[in-house]
Specification:
- The complex is a heterodimer.
- Chain A is mainly alpha-helical.
- Chain A has one domain.
- Chain A is about 65% helix and about 0% strand.
- In chain A, α4 runs parallel beside α7, α6 runs antiparallel to α10 and α7 packs across α8.
- Chain B is an alpha/beta fold.
- The chains are: A mainly alpha, B alpha/beta.
- At the A-B interface, α1, α2 and α5 of A face α2, α3 and α4 of B.
Chain lengths: ~210, ~260
């Protein structure tokens, strides 16, 4: 890290970098997502049956991951590509920081019942969805990165009743209760692969005009 | 030689857009001319280290672009204005140019002065704290040129730099180009032959990924003076004459 990156003030590099990626907007949108999740979970009367929270557990992390994914967009990818600074640390920080914030906020919507659809399941789904979104940003561009994850999670929600057997449960990890480590292994693998791909390649440029 | 390409090949999808290109570009202003699809932007993007060549060798400022460390050193001394560059929303001119200086690892204490110098050079000193999104198209183009100058580049690559500039701004820009060309290797891709005639020390005409003509603007003008082909000015006639002569040679070669 050079002296310039440590400079405070409006022209400091990290501050300009955060502004170039609209990081504050992403963080605000994540706070809004968490509030919406708390509100939605409150409507479910989950104290009667905690399993009713499955949709919040599946959809709130999806929404948060979509916010994180679209925030990976760079308005000037062509100029970014000529930077002297290596991109992977900044890309990784750009992905991990909002994911960490969402992992702190979203569980507040589903407190209690950690063995079924509680905080651990939300964090697992957040990691899995963020991995899908990060990989999609590399392949499709940040603006469309939410699309494959949305299709996948909705397919999992719709096929919950038909998911029988070990592999089917693994494939529908976003709607499985927090029991056993297999669905965690899937979500963590997807997150690791997505994050590594994004850190290495960055979001694909030029998917949509600015 | 600041820029040297040897047997450079570049493909776009399955189409060969640069075909065994050998170029040596020294200090000065080099105009890249050619019809749409000739390979000008592909060449600039490879020289800017944004796109990778599919074959051949590219050396810039003594470093091989294929080598990771070499590429980093090249980028430190490279200025690049893409044909289209998006700017970061909410940034002022000063912030935008300072951000690029940071990306280029310009030393911290030199950044404020470097930013002001670059912005003054493109004639935007009075708009330095204006939001980029509030500027006209021509002014945004000049902001793009300013960011390309902020690290005092040894190699400056400008893709259609005068697009959107009014005639007075273009005249001023040509003056800036001539000044920059005394110390740096400046490559300007353009469709405007009058810009080449006024500001360039050398001209390279590309057609279908190959060099159709190399020489000085005066040599292209002389070619036009001896030609009765289309064009309102001798250098425009020289442009079309050189292109047609090259195409005829390529056709003859294909028939043999």
């Amino acid at each position: 890290m050079t002296a310039h990156s440590l400079l405070p003030g409006p022209l400091s590099g990290p501050r300009l970098h955060a502004r170039s990626r609209a990081v504050l907007l992403t963080l605000a949108a994540l706070c809004g997502t968490a509030l919406a999740a708390v509100w939605a979970a409150g409507l479910l009367d989950a104290y009667l049956d905690p399993d009713r929270r499955v949709r919040v557990v599946a959809l709130a992390p999806l929404l948060a991951a979509a916010v994180i994914g679209t925030g990976l967009h760079s308005p000037s990818a062509e100029l970014d590509a000529t930077a002297v600074r290596p991109w992977w640390p900044r890309r990784l920080a750009h992905l991990l920081a909002p994911t960490a914030l969402a992992a702190l906020l979203l569980p507040l919507a589903v407190l209690g019942h950690p063995e079924t659809f509680g905080a651990p399941a939300v964090v697992r789904n957040l990691l899995g969805c963020t991995g899908l979104v990060a990989a999609s940003a590399v392949l499709l561009g940040a603006r469309l990165s939410w699309l494959p994850a949305t299709g996948y999670v909705f397919a999992a929600v719709l096929s919950t009743s038909g998911a029988r057997g070990h592999w089917a449960r693994l494939a529908t990890w976003p709607v499985q209760a927090q029991a056993g480590s297999a669905t965690w292994a899937v979500a963590l693998t997807v997150f690791a692969v997505g994050a590594a791909l994004y850190a290495r390649h960055g979001a694909r440029a030029g998917t949509l005009p600015d | 030689m600041p820029i040297r390409t040897t047997a450079l090949r570049v493909k776009h999808r399955r189409t060969l857009v640069l075909d065994s290109l050998d170029l040596d570009l020294g200090t000065g202003v080099h105009g890249l001319l050619g019809p749409n699809g000739a390979g000008k932007t592909s060449l600039i993007r490879v020289l800017a280290t944004v796109a990778e060549p599919d074959g051949g060798r590219v050396e810039i400022l003594g470093h091989d672009v294929g080598d990771h460390r070499g590429r980093t050193e090249i980028r430190r001394r490279l200025g690049y204005l893409p044909q289209e560059f998006g700017y970061y929303p909410g940034f002022t001119v000063r912030e935008f140019v300072a951000y690029v200086a940071w990306l280029k690892e310009v030393p911290a204490d030199a950044v404020p002065a470097a930013v002001e110098r670059a912005v003054v050079r493109v004639g935007l000193a009075d708009r330095i704290d204006a939001k980029v999104r509030t500027l006209s198209g021509g002014m945004v183009r000049r902001v793009g040129i300013a960011q390309a100058l902020v690290n005092e580049p040894g190699v400056l690559l400008l893709d259609e730099p005068t697009a959107g500039l009014d005639p007075e701004q273009r005249v001023e820009f040509r003056e800036l180009l001539r000044e920059l060309g005394t110390t740096a290797t400046v490559v300007v891709s353009t469709h405007l032959v009058e810009d080449v005639a006024a500001a360039c020390t050398e001209v390279t005409l590309l057609d279908e990924g190959r060099v159709a003509h190399r020489g000085t603007p005066a040599s292209l003008t002389a070619l036009g003076a001896a030609s009765d082909g289309p064009g309102d000015h001798p250098i425009e006639r020289g442009y079309t004459a050189a292109l047609r002569a090259h195409r005829a040679t390529v056709r003859e070669g294909a028939l043999r």
